[in-house]
Amino acid sequence: MNFVVIVSDTFRRDHLGCYGNDWIRTPNIDRLASESVVFDNAYCGSFPTVPNRAELFTGRYVFTYYDWSPLPKDEVVLSQVLGKAGYTTMLIADTPHILNDGYNFQRGFSGWDWVRGQENDRYITDPIKVKLPCSPEKLRSPYGTVVQYLRNVSRRTCEADYFAPQTMSRACDWLERNRSTDKFLLYVDTFDPHEPWDPPRWYVDLYDPGYDGEEVIYPAYDYNNYMTPEELRHARALYAAEATMVDRWVGKLLARIQDLGLMDDTTVIFTTDHGFYLGEHNLIGKCIVRENVLQATPLYSELAAIPLIVRIPGVEPCRIGGLVQPTDIMPTIIALAGAQDPGTMHGRSLLPLIKGEAESIRQIAISSWAITQGVSSGRRSTICDGRWALIYGGRAEGHGAESTPVVDSVRRSEQPYMPGIQPELYDLTRDPRQERNLFDAERDVAIRLHRSYVEQLKAVGTPEKYLRPRLVL
Questions:
Q1: Residue 397's pLDDT band (boundaries 50, 70, 90)?
Q2: Do 43 and 60 contact (CB within 8 A), yes or no?
Q3: Exposure of 313 in the CB half-sphere (CA atoms within 13 A)
Q4: Residue 414 · residue 292 · CB < 8 Å
Q5: Digit-coded pLDDT (tens) for 283-304
Q6: Which residues, at least 6 apart from 8, have a Cβ–Cβ distance to it below 8 Å?
Q7: Dmax of the chain from CA atoms?
Q8: Collapsing DSSP states into helix, strand and coil, what is residue 88?
Q9: Which residue, 113, 129, 258, 401, shows the most beta carbons closer than 10 Å to its own?
Q10: Reading across the β-sheet that carries 388-392, which strands appear in turn?
Q11: What is the predicted pLDDT for the residue at 398?
Q12: Are 114 and 94 in contact (CB under 8 A)?
């Protein structure tokens, strides 16, 4: 059994046709879904980008002890386990944060290939004059990340030069050269549709033709009070265009797998790390970032709900409603590969669900910022049982701001002191947009979810200093 794992950063689940979207064109991923096991209740675990990759590579709920930082040297990772089982393992990525500044997520792979230049990758230093696409106050890090990015992409001449196309093309080429390899894991990680959003114009014209205003390609992470309705509509169109471009090139990779005769013995997995607020809850982004200050926001469904599509040769397509998380991907691959369980994983194999041997493998899914910061920093966990979602951050400990490198790997950001944040509870069946907080009205539900949350934290060995402030609702 071979494996191709495709991670497309910041791909909102509700922006895929196979998950009910009816205005964004994603025919290739939808076709994959029609041949696959589709998980309707997949939720992110450790949030955001780098902690998610740590979960994918270790099968562990790292939010209980780890924040945005290099991959720890003592963690047992998927590439090592498969390597011992005789697999050739390859990482191809344009996502910069897992490879730059010594983050070392290529550890254990037989080979790795970094497509340079995405987002704030310090790649092109040429003194190229670039023009910002909108007023700088509407952009996150306009004279840092945005200028660096525009320099990085200044040499593009055609669609094949964009990042997702480059990454998928290199994956195609690797498969062609390595198709006779006895067994392999190809891990493909593209940062798109994460911002900056600047896809070829023909994709944008699918969703907002004729627009001639400012383009907010890398929006400031903040409350939604700085874009006009037209600018916000266009920002959503830019995101949709990125999603369609990713779909087009994922389709090329899927076609290459088919053309090379590999589909009959290759498991293909498509997923993401989290979503993105496009005006929902009056938010843009996935947190609030101002002048080196980071404020964590609640993980509502637009962020926490993720696609998970798994095509296994010989397995009939179906949809599964049981709760699943990124920690479950590594155990599933190890089980399918017949490799040895390292005994370090928190996740559970998806195979009992897929084979119909179980209706669920867990009672709750926990999506969470790292809880290694004090609870007064405002970092919250979302605890979901499939119907109800409790957003909870523990009891404030009464100390000041802390700092974190989260969301860009380079700078440290202050987290403001945020005491007294109240829990929130939502009925996802009746209120999928999470607009009516039922915490006071449905206290018994909140208590039940909180109890399950504490049990899970204990079960995975959460250090006492991080557990203690979360014992009381």
A1: low
A2: no
A3: 15
A4: yes
A5: 999 999 988 788 999 999 999 9
A6: 164, 190, 192, 193, 246, 250, 270, 271, 272
A7: 61
A8: strand
A9: 113
A10: 365-368, 381-384, 388-392, 424-427
A11: 62
A12: yes
Is pLDDT at 143 greater than 80 in this prediction? yes
> In the CATH hierarchy, which fold is given to the domain comprising 2-354?
Alkaline Phosphatase, subunit A (3.40.720)
The structure tokens 């993980």 sit at 299
**Separation CA 149–CA 121 (nearest Å):** 7
What is the distance between the alpha carbons of residues 169 and 188, in angstroms, rounded to a whole number?
11
Q: Strands, E, within 329-423: which ranges? A: 365-368, 381-384, 388-392, 402-404, 413-415
Instruction: Give the whole-angstrom CA distance, residue 8 versus residue 52.
Output: 12
Distance CA 347, CA 342 (A): 12
Structure tokens at 192: 């798109």
Query: Tens of pLDDT along 188-220?
Result: 999 999 999 999 999 999 999 999 999 999 999
pTM: 0.97
For 163, phi then psi, to 5°, come to -70, -50
pLDDT at 410 over 80: no
- The C-alpha atoms of residue 193 and residue 244 are separated, in whole angstroms, by 9
pLDDT tens for each residue of 73-108: 999 999 999 999 999 999 999 999 999 999 999 999
Domain boundaries, the chain: 2-354, 365-470
Sign of the alpha-carbon dihedral angle for 234, 235, 237, 238: positive
Place of tokens 């990015």: 149
First-to-last alpha carbon distance for the chain, in angstroms, is 46
Assigned CATH topology for domain 365-470: Arylsulfatase, C-terminal domain (3.30.1120)
**In this model, does residue 256 exceed pLDDT 90?**
yes
Q: How far is 176 from 464, CA to CA, in rounded Å?
A: 50
Q: Which of 224-228, 290-294, 355-359 has the lowest mean pLDDT?
A: 290-294
Q: What percent of the chain has pLDDT over 90?
A: 92
pLDDT band at 253 (very low <50, low <70, confident <90, very high): very high
Query: How far is 189 from 8, CA to CA, in rounded Å?
Result: 6
Picking from 260, 265, 266, 285, the residue whose alpha carbon sits closest to that of residue 275 is 285
Please give the mean pLDDT across all residues of the chain. 95
Q: How far, CA to CA in Å, does 10 sit from each of 33, 287, 304? A: 18, 13, 10
Q: Which residues pair with 268 in a beta bridge?
A: 4, 311
| Rounded Cα gap, residues 450 and 392, in angstroms | 8
Angle at the Cα of 410 from the Cα atoms of 284 and 127, rounded to 5 degrees = 90
Task: For the chain, give the number of residues.
Answer: 473
